[in-house]
Each structure stands twice: as C-alpha cells, then as structure tokens.
C-alpha cells in the first residue's frame, strides 16, 4: 500500500485556509521578535528521523503482547510502512534495520524499493541480546563481554556480518546495544567484563569501513538486572576514547537513572565531539519506550536547546547526527504512534529554534535567572505547530498526517493486504 | 511601597494593541473548537493563589543563604509585598501566615492593612519543626508524635494558639506539616508514632471552630531522614478518616517519591472528597521548592486536568480549595519568582479549561489512545498566554507583571525603604 | 523425582559435627543475652513460604527467555518440584496456583499428590493480564477496570472460576493482581477506572466462600505504563475498606517507587489489621524479581522486625499471614534460586526474632538513637545461620539444601525424566 | 580531655574473656575455609579513616539545627575530639581540615597537638559554596565556574591558600567539592560552566606541590538545584583526564542518583587508576549523610569487595587511598555516631577480606551464579565483629568504644570543660 500524492494534496486543500491563517499570524509574531519563520521552516524540512524496523509492529512486555492487525510480515512490508509515514510527514526518510530480524536477501531489490519511497538506510543494529534459532552458543550470560572467548567471537562475527549487510544497503554506521551485564552481585567481574567488551569492540572497530562510525549505546539497567556492562555515558565515552575517532556515544532517553539531567549529558558529549545521536522515546518510571513527548515534553525541548547550541558551535547541521525513534507501541496503532513521535520531535526542535539564544547568553552573563527562564519558556509556550505543518506542506507532506491516515483508512487497507493476524518480526 | 493603579493602566496601554491582536486571534481559534474564551477568562479571574508569608525573603539550603536586599522585616512589610504581587496580577489575593514567624500583634490593624490591599488571610500554619528561643521543650525528636507526652502537649498547645491567631484574622483553616519522623532504622516505633500523632491531632481537631478545616500534609522524606510519620497520601487520608469531616489531605507537589503519579493521587483524593488543596512548586530531584512550572509543566497541566474534572464532578469552584505557593527563592528576586509561579499556575489552569473533555471521554470509552493523547496535547500546545493576560487585565492587573515590576524598579524602591541587609523572618 | 529421606539424613550426618559446634556456640552467645535459641528454632520451624507454580521454570524479559532444562511441563511436575524443595528445607510446604496456567483437571489426584509430599495449597491467583487462546474479549485495555462492562464481566467470571478451583484444592484465599492501568496520560479516567474496578471486586467478593479472603495487590508501575489502577498501598487499602473485612492488602516488595520505606507501610497495614501477607523478592532498579535478600538484606530484616512486632501485637503466629516468593529465575536454576530465597527469608526472620525488643523500646522511649541502632545491628550482624539449619534439621530437612541438591544431581535427574527442552507454563 | 590508656586497658580486661572466646571460635571457622584470621586482623589495623573537622558538631538541615552540648569551639578542641575517637578505636588516625572554618593560626603548635594524639592531617578542603564575612565577591552564582572571571580568580586564590595551609600541616592533597551549578533550566550554559571550571582547576593544579594530589568530587544534585557542574563520575573523570596525573576522582556515597550501581563505578575508576578515595556515609532518599552502614550495609560490603580486588590488582595497600567519613550528626552524639561509622567501615572491609575470591573467580568463569552469590553472602553473613575488635585491641584501642565512651561519661566531661551551648564551626 502506498499513499499517492494527490490524496495528500487533496486533503491539504481542505485544511489550507486555516493553516495559512495560523502560519501567517505566527510568522508575524515571530517577526516582531526578529525571528525568520521561513528560515526555521527550512531547517525543519531538513530534519529526518529514522524509523527502526522493529517499531512497526505491536510491542509487548514480559507478560505478553496484545497484537495488532495488518502488521508487516516481511522487510519489504516494513519498508512500505515507513514509506507511508514518510509520504505523510516527509520527515521519516530513513529506516534503521535490525539484524537478524530483517536480513535483506536481495539487497538491490530492497534498495530499489526504498528509493522508490524516498527512503535511505540509517545505522544498522546488531542483536546479541537474544538467542536465535540454531545459534551455536548462547548469550544467556553475555555476548561481547562473555567469560568464554568463543561466545565473544561469535558475537563479534555477528557484528561484522551486520556491517556487511549495512554496506550492501548504503548504511554508514553500526549501532551496538548490549544487554550484557549481571543479575546478581558477584555474578560478574566488572573489570574483566569491561576489558572483554573492549577487546570485542576493538575487533569490530577494526572491521569498520573507512567512512563508517560505530555507535556505543549505554543503559543504566534492564528489568531483572543488577548491573550492565555499559551503564552510563561515562562508561560509553571511556569505550569510545579507547576505540578511536570512529566511535561515538549514542544516547537513548529511556536509559538513565531516575531524575538524570540528560540535557547536560548531551551538552557534555557535544562539547567533546562525541555525540553520535539519539534514540527518542519517553518514559514515566523506567525505560518505558513511550511515544516521544508524551510525558516530559519540556525536557525534550531542553535537550533540543542543547542540540541546537551544540550544532551551531560545531558548525554542523542536523544531518551530522543519527536521529531515531526507539519506542514500543503496545496500545496504539504503531504507525499513528510513530507519527505522533515524529511530530513531537519536530515541535521540540522548532521551539528550540525560535529561542532567542543571544538574549539568553546575555541574561546568563548577568545571572538574570528570571529572564533566562522567561526566554526559555517564551519559546516553549509559543504554539509552533504551524511551523511544523508548514515544513511538512513544503516538503509535500500532509498538514494533518494522523487525520489523513484515518481518513484513508490506511490500517484497514493494510489488514486487507496482509491479514488480521500477522505478527511483525522483532520484539 | 504600593503600586498605584494608574501606573498599571499606563503600562498596559502600551501593550494593549499587541495583546488585543493575540487575544482576538486565540478567541477565534478557540471559538472554532466550540470554546468560549470569555467564559474561561472569567474562570481564571476567580482563581486566587495564596502567598505564604515565608516566601517573600531569599531562602537557603543547609549550606547557607545568599540573602537578597530590601526584604520585608515585619509582618506589615510582608503584607505590603503580597499587595504588590496582587496589584500586578490580581491573582494573589491572600496570604498564608506562619506562626510564630508572623504573629500579628494588632490583629485589627493587620486586617485593615490587608483589606486596603484587597488581601484576605488564608490557612494559618503552625511550626513544630524548629525550636524557638525560650521554648521549654525541644522538638529535636518530634512534636505531635514525640514519645514524651509533655512535648506533645506543648506542640498541641502551639497549634491551638495558631488557631486563635487565625480566628482573629479571619482564616478558616489550620495547615499542619510535621517534620516528625526518624533519621535511623530503629529510632522510632512506627505504630506508636502514628498513634501519638493521631491523639495529638484529635486534640487539635477538637479545638477547631465550627467552620474551620484542618489540612494534614504528608511528605515522603526530608534530607537526613529515614522515615516521616506521615509519609504519603495514604497515611494522610488514614489520619483524616480517623479525625472526621473537617480534616482533609493537603498535597505538596515536592513531597513525593521519584516518579510518583501525582495526578492520580489528586483524582483519588477528590473522588473521596478529601482534597484540601495544594502547595505548588516544582522539582527535579527531590523537594526542590523551585518555581512552579519550571521543570515539569506538562505534569502540572495533567494535575489541573484532574482538578477541573474533580471540581466539575463535585459542583465546586476553585474557591472550594486552598491553593498556595510553597517555594524557596534562592537565586531569583522572591517577588519576581512568585509572579512567575502564579503565571505558570494560571497557564496550566487555562490549558486544562480549554481541554475538550467531552471528546476525551468519548475517546476513552473507545480506547482510542491516540486521540486521547491528541486532545490533551492540543490543549497543552495551545498558547494560552493571551487568556491569562486578558484575565489579569479585566481584574485591573498588569498585562506584563514582571515587566512592570522591573520598569518601576520596585525592588530598588523596597531597598530604599527597608535597606540592603534586611533578612526576612522565616526559613 | 523425589528426594528420599535417607539421602537427606545421610548427607546431614557428614555435616552434623560442624553444625552442632556452631549451633552450640551461638546458643551460648544468645543465652548470655537472655535469648532462648531453642524457642527461636521452633518458631522458625513453623514458618512456611508458599512457592508459586509459575516460579519453577526459567523466566524471561521482554527480549526473550533463555530457557533452562528439565523444567516441569505439567501441574503434577510442578508439585513434584515443590516437593523437592520442601523435602530439602521443610519450609516450602505449600504451593500457590496460577489459573489458567495450572488448572487442576483431577482435583482429588492433585490433592493426593500434594499430600504425599506434605504440601498444601496456598492462595490461588487469577490472571487477567494476558489473553488466553480462544478468549472471547481482550484484556488489552484492562480487565476489572475496563470501560466495557462485558470485558469486566468476563474478568469477574474468571476470578469466580478461580475461586472454584481453589475450593476444590483447599485454598482459602484468592489473590488478585491487575496490570490494569494506562500507558499514556489521558488514556483513562482515573475515577471511572477506580469505580469500575471496585464494582468488579465487589462481585468477586460476593462470591467468596465464608472462610475465604481476597488479597488485593498493588503495584506502582509496569514497564511501558503511565498509571496503574491500584498504584500503592493507600489505593489497595481504600479498596479493602470499601469491600469489607475479607479483603486485605498484599505487599510485593518490588512494587514500590524508588526509596519507599516499605517497613513503615508494613507497620501501618498491620496496625490497621489489613496486611494479607507478602510476595517476597528483591530488586535494584525496579520490579526486578530477583532472589530474596540478594540486594537489600538489611531492608528485609527491617521488614521482619515490623512483622515480628506486628504479630506479637495482634497475638498471631506466622500462619496468620500469606507468605510467598514471587521472583523470576532467569540465570539461575529455579530450584536452587528458590532455596536461596527461602533461606534468606528465614535468616531475616531469625535475626528479627533475636532482636532485644524490650531494650529497643526503652531506648526509643529515651530517644537513645545510638543504642537503638546498636540493638538492631547486633541482631543483624549475628550469624544466625546455625538457627536456620537447626530448624531444618529438626523438621527433617537438610543442613545444606543446595549442597545436597547438587550432590544428588537433582537437575540431571529431572532432565533425564523430562527432557532438555521442556518449557514450564507461566511467564 | 584525653582518654588515658589505662582506662582503655582496664575496660578491655572485663571484656577480654568473652572476646577471646568469640575470636578463637571465628578464627577456627575461618581457618577451616583456609583464611588466616591473624593476617586479616593486621590488614584491618592498618586501615585509617580520616575524620573531617566539620563532623564533630551537631549538624542541621535547612529548617534548623538542634545543637548538642560540649561541642568543640576551636580547632584545638576538634583535634582533641578526634584524639578521643582514635584512642578508642585506633582507626581514626587523621583529621581532614576545612578552610576557612579551621584555619590553623599556629601550625607548629597544631602539629604538635595532633602528634601527641597520634594524628596526621589528611586532605584539606576548600569552601567556595558559602560566602564568608567580609568576602569581596559572592559565590551565590558559582565559584570556579562563575561567569565573572573575578569571582573565579577569588575562588582559585582561596584554593591556593588552602594548599598553603595544608603544606604547613603536612597534608598531601586538596579536596574540592563545588556546589556550582544552576537552580533552573536556562540559568547556565553547561559548556561554558565546564570550561570555566576547567580553567580554574588548571590554575589550582599548577599550584599543587610536587607530591600533592587534587581530588575532584562529583555530586548529582543538591536540594533546590537543577544541575551541578560536576554531576557524575564521568564528568569528574573528564576533568581529571584534562588536568593530569595528579587529579583523581573522589567518590561520596551519597552523591548519586537513585539506584546507582556505585560498586561498578568504583571498579571502573580503579581500573583506570583514577580513584582518589571515599567519603563514607549512608542514605535512604538522597544525600542524607547518615551513619555509615545504617541503611545499606550490603552495598557497602559490595563496594569493599571491589576496593579489595582493586587494591590487589594495583599492588596497593589501603594507605594508597583517602578514606574519610562525611556524615551529618543531627540526632546522635557526633562522637558516638563517628564511632559507629568507623566500626561499620571496618566490618565491611573485614567481610570483603574473608571473601574467597579465588573460588569466586572460578564460579564467575563457569557462570555459576548461585555459587557466586553464596560465596559473597557467606562472607557477609559471617559475624566478623571479633576480627574488628581484635584489631582494635592489638592497636591499643577499646574492645567496645561506645561502651567505654559512655562508661567514662566523656560527653559530660566535654560539657564540663566547654560548656553546654557551644556550637562547632562548620555546617
């Protein structure tokens, strides 16, 4: 199933009057503050968030999964799903594959399909946190950190194989997330685990193509865990420092201890030139993998304030980083949920872009804390939805992606094509 | 020092054109959604947040206090300060006194002063968490829960005296916050502490005038503590159930364990008809007493969604509850900080008021989680500042309270009157 | 497979000399403090912890399950497993069934099998947090709290059916844990959810046999959640108050927000006569379901201090409460893990029993915090393992359950009987 | 006041019989496990924990301080107090001074006094988190990170002056803890704050004597804060890497986010050769500064397991690190509290020393998680108090420091000398 452009245009037509009214009003308001709305719209258009191949089906918890319907049953169908999203919002122009769930059997055909939907391939992801059928050695007690060098070798080889698949598709980065760690005090030797992991990563690093990066993700904890090998940004950075310039730290919003100041972590990693990018989601209690912006939208905004400042300082655009959604869709239609997440990301980005950073720097220099807060809140309280809509409109997307998705009864169409009881591979 | 009305009107004149433009635009937008902006403005006008007498000076931490200047040195000056706030925002029309920091020596004169500034007296607060000079017995090991009945009696008597002062001023409630608890496992017998506290509260309850309420506040922890006698809403409610219908639970936003779902607690207490009101503030790590809305504005909005629903269900207006700011102003001018807090509260209230609760109930009934989230976020993402400004304008306040406060150099005026090195009584 | 008594006796013989030496030494030490070791041994012998039928297989997380071998494939085999545990430690004399995972087809035969292993049937557990094959309506959006009365009815009927199974086996309580709640702000109406749940519980309550109890469990959060219907002990207690005297609150150690003072909750619930019992486990970050005592043994001890005091106050023995292990065994042999958990529980109980509570009460009365801590720590620092071993020995169990389990190669025996790739029904 | 040796010997005599009985029994038990109790006793004797000069008076919270009596009013009296502790436990042989609270006016006399009590001077601590009387510029908005270079210079100069005082007394390290940070989002520029702090630290580093170290402490948060400049071990390590080999990371147990795995942080820092040492205390909710071991003794043990392993790996003894107590004594006699803390530290160390690390490494190599836990718990559950007592006895200390402190009515003696209403300088 594919959403044809005329459908989008038709739908937009009905909304255009209202949108123009709102956009013009906002443009004037921003203009009075010396902000060029059109420039911001362009910056927003350039922002692309990768959709992970595992996020297109209904997720579950340890108790079970309440599956949805019409879910993609193959890599091709997953690409098709991302194509639908991208057609609607023109901001989801890449897909991040997870191996071995989504091994491309015919890379050329896959690339062609993706191209036809205007999609690229983002970082490829390895999986050594589950045992696959017919896998020789188990990852029950770890993978890259395992006490047994044979298991480590198997995990290293898997990662190298993932790079191979990525190369075929035009990816430029390998993203590594480990669930290695321990469930109980005493179970593992922290130092040996670190050093085993380092050696394994060094072997993978050596296999990286010239123009590739490896992203080292950290996570404070997993349910049923006592420790993780890469528990925080400090550990991740230590690995990257020892690996070399191709290794950067990947931040997942849900992978922190309660109350962590994530925006400061972002600022520090950008200062060190070591931020790879983001896995976006939101959470209330732990790593809840909820829709981006659904719980702590102000924190997301504060993170984007740091990102915008950091990009400026580094002279980089948003294409210099890897942005991806990493959420679990358990009670919403995964495609609608992803549309909500992308919208929330763009809104936060837009808010950060309209922040008057010059005045903010002056207020900071004078320790005028009241004014600094006012400036931030002025940006956050502004209704920037017209900016995001305008960006989507300019790029050929929909003014109301979810509305159109529902109007077109896309899910029904997918069910008709794929059936009611498909289950997407992945989590 | 007093802000004369013509100053406010003059200042508003310069801002009126812009404001009207924004308000009319928003009114139209809301009108299209079937929402009557003028009705909401009226509802906002009726909302009054009490200012506690201890919040008008610069606060400190256990390491020290970096005092400000021109702070109020007497109860009269504190009332004057609240008068300034109320003149500016017309939403801070009451003051909550803390005894013994602010004992009114001449109640009539105090009432007259307050009336002249259009201020009333909100709940009175007792203090048994500090020892006062010449106090006979120490609260080092507790007050209402103390193992020694003589200490309990002293604490009960103090509370009864506080009621007396409150009666003189026209207050209608006693607010009790205890720092009773223990620093170490083993230090206190939980059950005896509970029962001692209950007996003490019963004696205080018996001394309440017919038309008074007692507010029982809970707090999960204090620095250097291991337990508090009233640790959560469940404990508070248990006390209130045993005390009787005049006892209600007071919620302070900062008094919870990490990640607590406070909006659900609010809903439950309102369902039980046991919510006394709120102590507003914000926090990142613990009971940080930061400016309202400065860290988690979306959570504040969600709380107001429950409050609005609960008031509707109970057929009550906002005057049926006790609203107070309970923050510590350490790096901002306390008056500017309070203006920011009141504004944040009104904005959250306005967002909750424009929520389409009928559609929301339908979406909930259909488990349309995507739509439910959209409805909430539509309200939250709307820039409701014109509504709050309109409300202040209608009530005779300023369209830009902090701007006018700064234009008039109010703090300089206070310094001129009071001197540089005054220190407000209180924390 | 069954462990014959002579195996245990034989194994004990080799350890007896060392044990007696240690026990006699400890007995003398305790005697000097006025404590009768033999009385404590008797009290320990009487303590029985139920084993849940779902804990006998290898658990998993949302990412997958690394299954063990020789796991029980039927209810009969599960009972057999508990029989092995009970033979070894004589403290696991009951089993808690989970319906529909473990529906007894022939109740008489099941009872007979259990009796032959000296096992009883503890509380029965319903399951409305998963959809079963061929289930008419889904619990995706809740069960007892669902917006649709037909779903609620299905869930109520299931609970009533569970009671029926329990009656057949001699159970005396129904234990209800709900994963009802919401994933996103706005998704559910807190008050309606509460009231729907209350009505559902009232129907179940009405179906309870005269001499039964219903245990209402609470849980602060689940991964991927934003709210749970019964979020804390206060909510649970509110339900129980509205239900009636047959309803009590069940505490699961892992179901709390970070840093919660659980021992105080226990004390309060016992004071109210509303503690049903415990689900034991341990955790570092969330509801990790780790081996009891593996992370926070001192907290477990403090809880037992409250339990011992509460039982004394209520004039009840340990058989007046429901004790159960509720852990997930992902990287250990489930039977060895359960043996470690039961041992940890007994050790904490023993430490609480040797606490000099009279001296403690005196120290508290004098606010002698140093002494109060010393008394607690004296009990905790004492090596009470000989007491627990003596209790097991007296009851016919093993002096070293895990050692014997390994010596007898029990797991190999089970694999030989059941095969390598069995997977236990349950989580 | 000074405790004469004969008093200690006399008191020990009465306890010796019982102690010898217990020690011999434990020695035998350990001997059977191949552990040489006497060697452990010697290792314990060598362990010395510094007492900070600010811990000898009653501490307070932001609400107030309930002072004790007979507190030291001068540096001389503080040294005297530490002398009392060291006489009793022979494990508190150094004092850590805090400038400007404890400026030594006559260094030679101070050294002589300390020597007479067998005390050395540990790391000196600077204070830029408070304004001192007559201080030119305020630290209200930061010190080493301040936006104003003049304030930074003042703070740098203060640190250099602290080094000067330390040199006079024979200290070998400067310990820096900053409360620099921000209370509100937007208030500070994270990157500039980091870089300002780095420059300031570089100037201080340049002023370090050849054989000195600088300890960089981190802290996740303070009450009323939104961010701290050095928020976690990763930040601290980054500073140390940029500063050079004389800079190491100081870990304070209370300075972490909820649930942090501190033992893993310790292992990582030791692996990197960057652990300076420890500030010991304990906590339930935040940075509670409670008595060491009073809340989470098992965690303290796990930390010592890493310390023992790390020291072995590095070929260092316990004198290669800086150990200090950093607690606040609000409801206990400070000296008794410190005795409890030192005892708890020694007990944890002793437990870690009797751990069978060879067997543990084998169990880890075989992923025998059950055995690994058993080995840890065997060490922890062993009653090692006789080892600590034997160490104190051998070093000339008391078998029961608190008992003797009370028998000798030391506090009364101090009150007689110093009066009832002294207040120690410091917090």
Automatic annotation (TrEMBL), chains A, B, C, D:
Protein name: Sugar isomerase
Cross-referenced PANTHER family: L-RHAMNOSE ISOMERASE (PTHR30268)
Keywords, alphabetical: Isomerase, Manganese, Metal-binding
GO molecular function: isomerase activity; metal ion binding
Xylose isomerase-like TIM barrel domain residues: 106-289
Keyword Repeat (UniProt): no
Gene3D superfamilies for this protein: Divalent-metal-dependent TIM barrel enzymes (3.20.20.150)
Signal peptide residues on this chain, from the entry's feature table: none
InterPro entries assigned to the protein according to its UniProt record, in alphabetical order: L-rhamnose_isomerase, Xyl_isomerase-like_sf, Xyl_isomerase-like_TIM-brl
């Amino acid at each position: 199933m594919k959403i044809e452009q005329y459908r989008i245009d038709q739908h937009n037509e009905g909304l255009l009057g209202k949108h123009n009214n709102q956009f013009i009003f906002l443009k004037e308001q921003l203009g009075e503050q010396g902000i060029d709305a059109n420039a911001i719209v362009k910056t927003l258009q350039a922002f692309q968030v990768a959709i992970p191949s595992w996020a297109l089906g209904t997720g579950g918890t340890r108790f079970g999964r309440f599956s949805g319907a019409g879910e993609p049953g193959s890599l091709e169908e997953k690409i098709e799903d991302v194509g639908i999203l991208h057609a609607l919002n023109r901001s989801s122009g890449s897909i991040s594959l997870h191996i071995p769930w989504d091994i491309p059997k015919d890379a050329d055909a896959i690339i062609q399909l993706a191209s036809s939907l205007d999609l690229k391939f983002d970082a490829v992801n390895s999986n050594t946190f589950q045992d696959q059928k017919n896998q020789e050695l188990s990852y029950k007690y770890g993978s890259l950190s395992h006490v047994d060098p044979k298991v480590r070798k198997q995990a290293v080889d898997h990662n190298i194989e993932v790079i191979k698949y990525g190369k075929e598709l035009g990816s430029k980065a390998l993203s590594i997330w480990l669930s290695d760690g321990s469930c109980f005090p005493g179970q593992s030797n922290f130092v040996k685990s670190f050093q085993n992991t380092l050696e394994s990563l060094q072997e993978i690093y050596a296999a990286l193509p010239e123009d590739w990066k490896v992203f080292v993700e950290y996570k404070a904890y997993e349910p049923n865990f006592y420790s993780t090998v890469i528990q925080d940004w400090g550990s991740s950075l230590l690995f990257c420092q020892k690996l070399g310039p191709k290794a950067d730290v990947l931040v997942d919003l849900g992978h922190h201890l309660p109350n962590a100041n994530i925006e400061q972590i972002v600022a520090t990693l950008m200062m060190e030139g070591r931020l790879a990018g983001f896995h976006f989601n939101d959470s209330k209690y732990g790593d809840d993998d909820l829709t981006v912006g659904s719980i702590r939208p102000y924190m997301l905004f504060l993170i984007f304030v740091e990102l915008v400042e950091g990009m400026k300082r580094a002279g980089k655009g948003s294409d210099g980083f890897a942005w991806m959604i990493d959420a679990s869709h358990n009670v919403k239609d995964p495609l609608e949920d992803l549309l909500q997440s992308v919208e929330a990301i763009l809104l936060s980005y837009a808010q950060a872009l309209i922040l008057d950073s010059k005045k903010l720097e002056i207020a900071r220099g004078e320790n005028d804390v009241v004014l600094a807060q006012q400036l931030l809140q002025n940006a956050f309280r502004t209704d920037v939805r017209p900016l995001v809509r305008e960006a989507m409109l300019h790029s050929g997307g929909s003014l109301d992606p979810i509305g159109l998705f529902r109007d077109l009864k896309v899910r029904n169409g997918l069910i008709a094509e794929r059936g009611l009881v498909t289950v997407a591979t992945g989590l």
